[in-house]
Structure to design on (271 residues):
């Protein structure tokens, strides 16, 4: 059994997050109102004012600056999203006939995966017809990724480009890792991401879907950094539906504990 904390980022209060295993800590992002028992990124050292650009990554900054000082080198720190939760296994197909509940399939702190790796990344997405570089440019345009890669040192730029010219991404800015690795990752990510933000804002690129361009850039960097710098293993994740997220429903039951709720999970991508 490991010492594990996973911070579940959210943009609004959802009481289903209070009903998850105790190692999952709800973390409210931005400047919305959250109950007193929730962690809030606008307390302590933070960049909550940049959340509209950084998305869940502003929460990672808060974890780095406010939650690691008392952690040992073998403690595990991770993150997830309010509707994307870590599962206890790696799956290659949806569990369409499963009678079990989603809750019983969530990550357990005694999972053996923690004995043989430095980081747990989410199940990779494999692009069949394009590279990560090509896919990013097709969606976000303007050569943003190409230009922002230039802000890295020449040595890291080469490694990052090798990753981007491949077709495998560990997405969503989700990971679980040991304390020294998250510290080193953040020390590398955030100076580069600030340069990316300045570039995007100065060139009026953060509009509409591209408002969170820095978060999308960070997703590619996160995929690259952990896959290159740590011994990785992989788990699947589940995506909560609106029924499970409903505060009205969760006043009366915990829908993640209902049989058959694992039926449509995990989320499998086929690109």
């Amino acid at each position: 059994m490991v010492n594990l904390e996973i911070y579940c980022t959210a943009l609004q209060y959802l009481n289903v997050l209070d009903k998850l295993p105790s190692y999952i800590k709800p973390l409210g992002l931005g400047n919305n109102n959250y109950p007193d028992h929730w962690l809030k990124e606008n307390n302590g050292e933070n960049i909550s004012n940049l959340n509209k650009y950084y998305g869940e990554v502003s929460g990672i900054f808060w974890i780095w600056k406010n939650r690691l000082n008392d952690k040992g080198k073998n403690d595990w720190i991770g993150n997830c999203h309010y509707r994307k939760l870590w599962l206890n296994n790696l799956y290659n197909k949806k569990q369409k006939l499963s009678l079990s509940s989603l809750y019983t399939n969530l990550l357990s702190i005694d999972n053996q995966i923690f004995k043989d790796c430095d980081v747990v990344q989410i199940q990779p997405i494999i692009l069949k017809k394009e590279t990560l570089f090509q896919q990013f440019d097709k969606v976000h345009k303007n050569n943003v990724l190409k230009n922002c890669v230039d802000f890295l040192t020449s040595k890291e730029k080469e490694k990052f480009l090798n990753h981007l010219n491949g077709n495998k991404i560990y997405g969503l800015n989700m990971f679980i890792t040991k304390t020294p690795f998250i510290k080193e990752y953040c020390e590398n990510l955030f100076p580069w991401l600030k340069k990316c933000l300045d570039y995007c804002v100065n060139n009026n690129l953060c509009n509409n879907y591209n408002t969170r361009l820095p978060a999308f850039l960070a997703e590619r960097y996160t995929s690259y950094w952990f896959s290159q710098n740590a011994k990785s293993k992989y788990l699947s994740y589940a995506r909560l539906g609106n029924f499970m997220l409903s505060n009205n429903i969760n006043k009366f039951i915990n829908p993640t504990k209902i049989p058959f709720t694992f039926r449509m999970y995990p989320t499998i991508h086929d690109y």
Remarks:
- The mean pLDDT is 96.
